[in-house]
Structures are given as C-alpha cells and as structure tokens.
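Complex 493.
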Amino acid sequence: MKLEIRGSDHEYKYVVEQSLLALFPQERPVYEMVDPASDSRWAIITLREEGDRCHVTTEMGWDGKSAPFTLGVDLSGDDYAREGQRRRAIGMSFFRAAREVTGITPPWGSLSGIRPAKVAAELLEEGRTPQEAEKALEEIYFVTPQRARLCMDAALAAQRAEAMLEKKDISLYVGIPFCPTRCAYCSFVSNSVEKSFHLVEPYLEALHQEIEDAARMVKELGLRVRSFYMGGGTPTTLTAEQMDRLLGKVESAFDLSASVETTVEAGRPDTITREKLEVLRRHGVSRISVNPQTMEDHVLRAIGRRHTAGEIREIMGLVSAMGFPHVNMDLIAGLPQDTPEGFRRSLTEVMAFGTDNLTVHTLSLKKGSRITLEGSRIPTEAEVGEMLSFADPTLRGAGFAPYYLYRQKYQSGSFENTGWCKEGGEGWYNIYIMEELHTILSMGAGGSTKMVDRAGGRIQRAFNLKFPQEYIQRPEKIAENHQAFRAFYQQMG
Ligand code: SF4
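Predicted structure with iron/sulfur cluster bound:
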C-alpha cells in the first residue's frame, strides 16, 4: 500500500506500519507520493496541531472505494504522554478509515501494539472499574468482547504482580541458543546441536564468566533478584552435567533468596530425560515448560519436529512423577497442516495432562522461517479464529484464567498469544517482562537486556551479540553492556 505522512517532522512510520500490518497483513508499506486518481491502494495521513489539540486525518483508497476519517484528541501530560496520545490517534484514524473502505473489524479493533493489556491498565488508572474499562475497550477501540475480557484479565494480573515489586527489583534471563533440530516455523537464532556441538562447551565457559560479572554488578548496585528464567533455544539440549554446572553457577553467583520462581524451558520433548529432570528438581526449579505445540503427528512432522505425540505422552508421565510445583505446556494455533478439529484434539489432550499452565500461541511467520520459504498450507484466518474461540471457553470452563498476553507481527489473523493458568499458577516472570514491570538482565548470546525505570518513565535496551561464535569471541560487548547498565542505575539513584 502506498503511504504518505504529512504535517509532521516526527517519525510516525512505525505506528502507521503497525496499523497496516494489523489491518492488511498481506500489504507492505511503500512510501511514495500518492495519486488517488491512478493508485488502487493508498493512504494519506495528515497531522495538524492547534495548541493542545491534535487532528489526524486518514484518507484511504482501497480497490475503487475511498474514505476519509478525521479525529481530534486533546494532548495532556509530559512530552512522552503526548507522543503516546498522538500515536494512538494516528492508529485510530487509520483504523476507522480502513474499516470504512473494507467493512472489516479485526479482533483487536484499532489496537495494533504488542501489549494490549497496557491500554487496559491505562483505562483502570484513569479511575474506571474493570467492567467500565472492558466496555471502553469495546466501544472506543472496537475490540471484540472476548478479547476485551482477555485484556482486562491480563491487566488485573499485572496489577497484582506490580503490587509485589520494589524499585530495585530485577529478573534474570539466561539463554541457551541451541536446539536439537530447527523447527520449520522458527526464525529464532538457534543453532542445531548437530551442527554446532563443538560450540556448546566454549559457549558455557563464556556464559559462566558473564554470570559472574553480572552478579558482581547486581550486588554493587544493590538490586534484588525476583525471578530467574532459563530459555532458548532449548535449554534441555544441554547434558544433565552441563545443566547441573550452569544452575550451580547461577545459584552461587547471585543472591536468589528473594526470588519467587525459577523457570526452565524444557521445550522439546526429544531433549528431556529423567536425569535432566532430576537435576532441575535438585536445583529447586519451580516451573518447567514442555512445548509440544500440537499433539497431531502429521503436524509435528510438518513443522520439522523429530518427535511424536507418543513421546510427549511418555515425557509427561515422567514430568508428573517428578512433582514440579508448576508445569507449563505450549500449543500453537494455526500450524501447517492443522485443522480446527486437530487443534481441538490437541488442546483436549494437553489439558488432560493436568498441568496448571497452558500457553496458546498463534502462529507467527517471520522472515527466515522455513514455512514461509517453502509455502506450506497453513490454516486460514477463519480457522485460526475457530481454534481460539474453542480454547477460550474451554480453558475458562476448566478453571484456567488468562494472566498475560502479547501480540506479534505477522501473526495469523492478527490474533494473540495468551498465557493461561489455574489459581496461583502465574508465571510471574512472564508478566514482569510482558508488562515491562521491571528490568530483565539477560545473559547469553542473543540476550536482550531491558532496563526499566517505572517511576522515571525510562526504558533502555542493551543487546548481547547474537551468535554463539561471536558471543564467545567478543566478551568486550558484555563489558560495554554492563557499563550501560551501571550508568542507567546510577542515573536512577
Ligand atoms: S525449539 Fe523453539 S527455538 Fe528451537 S528451533 Fe524450535 S521453535 Fe526454534
């Protein structure tokens, strides 16, 4: 779609593109002068400000139909707040024009951001009751009732999480960027162990060093660790002995006495053994995540998994016998070759394992995933909608409630990923990271540290090097990131 943004020196391409992706996932932005007489798909977004009032007009053309939509909003608060109000007005005006020309209202209405629960939280902060805020999501942002409720449940869980936090609380993340094989939908920089086995030990050596340095810094800055999460990749790709060493290193380096949970992703059933689970139990891991994604064998094959549903059943028998306090399982709606019926079977079977956490993702196909490249048959938007419409009441009926959610680019049908849990089963780390409630200090290749100063309204990021090889060879990048981290907290006081 051809796009033109007029009347502002500010950079609003990102917000316009988010709306474009949410409403027209098949379109790509082209920034060129629009000619309404000859172009078939176009939008002109014009901003105008008079004092504290901002007017945004979107004129849109779509295959012969065209519509303008103008919106006026009052700007208030500091520069940061005003910028947020402008961006939301742009999103809303773009959405309303798109709705006029296509007649379609997507499930999240005009909300195009990845954290819709933040909008719900703002509505609560303005003094609305949860019921009023839910209604406002439907009436102001055109969110469907099912999603307004999801959003409100997640916002209320975030409020509970925030009430337990103090100013200098942080969480730790350790990344293991290795997997046994690469799944077809994956765009993550994970290295197949078959190809990079020789890197695992040097990687762990470099990681142990980073953990030591980071722990010293955390102690000097007087920060308190509230949760620890090991993800990937697939951490259980490591051997039992390597996991034992790594967990031992984290425990001896950091003071974890105030930590409410330790989570380890045991994502791929083909990496789990009794010995590894025993190591996790011995180290007090309170939550593991086993991620079958589907219980349909032909779908597992289509996504490049080497294990069968039968192996998942076997592993879950082992996991249940180990007595972890919390176990999560992930499913994905919209996988290639899956159907609403297949998804229903998967969810029903996964629920029967009796875990207290289930995360329902929607397939997101980023550039770089093999499915995008190979052109596999993936379920339609309507079919994915049907899968999620089955999941919501079914999970609620079984005593689960949504506690965090997020959206991704290129997600089937522009839906969402939702974490569900039974009472008391919240994975707090998931809420901390998703709602940006405090700093996440990430260690390991590809780690992205996000420093959060809630009171000062500041967020800053520092990225570790992506690939294990460069991470091992260039420790100076970690030192640079730690310097930025210290400076952030020194400013925070
Ligand atoms: S297990 Fe996860 S990180 Fe590893 S290849 Fe599959 S999708 Fe990617």
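Residues 179, 182-183, 186, 188, 190, 232-234, 267-268 surround iron/sulfur cluster (CB under 6 Å).
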